[in-house]
Amino acid sequence: MEIEKAKLEALGWQSTDLSHIPMSWNPQNNFEPACEMIKTALLILEQNYAAEKATYVHCSVGEDRTSLLAALWKIWKRANSKLQTSDAPWIYETYKNEMCRYGYGMGLVRTNKPLDIVQKIEASLTPLYVAVASEIINIKKRNGDLGELSCSSLKPVQVNYKCEPNMTFQTNQTKGELYE
Q1: Domain residues of the chain, as ranges?
Q2: Confidence band for 154, pLDDT divided at 50, 70 and 90
Q3: Contacts for 72 with CB less than 8 Å, ≥ 6 apart
Q4: What are phi and psi of 93, to 5 degrees?
């Protein structure tokens, strides 16, 4: 954190504009604290977006938690109240194109991420992503506010999502029913 902070300050960022949100990459069976950290980060992103302020997001390596947050932010900004009943394909496509593409799990591995770490990520962060993404979409369907994200009632969603190094990615997303 200190190295990134120093680099940002050297680029002219004010230390008062920097937020550090420590988030475990392995929340195991207690998803509420990790969800609260995601909610805090999303609210900061929303505040900075409204103020037209740049935002820098990074975790230890910049692959798993960073990709998770970027995918959830994209869902929040792109989803609208006209979503259909089945949102799972869109949640998966965002997972694949925003998370796997940038190194989540085994996707586009730039580092030699140990298999046991990948398995823990798939068992903990991926169900958390799906649960938060589903809740964000439900909030959007009601034309609600991001602050309504309720982490205490959130239950992890077990899915068989896996990033593979040989995945193909969508390069241009076209506007459709899920986009504003």
Answers
A1: 2-148
A2: confident
A3: 38, 42, 129, 132, 133, 136
A4: -60, -40
Alpha-carbon 151 to chain mean position: 15
To the nearest whole number, what is the mean pLDDT of the chain? Answer: 79
Query: Which pair of tokens denotes residue 85?
Result: 């009943």
Position 149 pLDDT exceeds 70? yes
- Give the C-alpha separation, 173 to 175, whole Å: 7
Question: What global pTM score does this model have?
Answer: 0.81
Length of the chain: 180
The token pair at 24 is: 């475990």
How far apart (Å, rounded) are the C-alpha atoms in residues 134 and 154?
A: 10
Query: Residues 62, 77: contact at Cβ < 8 Å?
Result: no
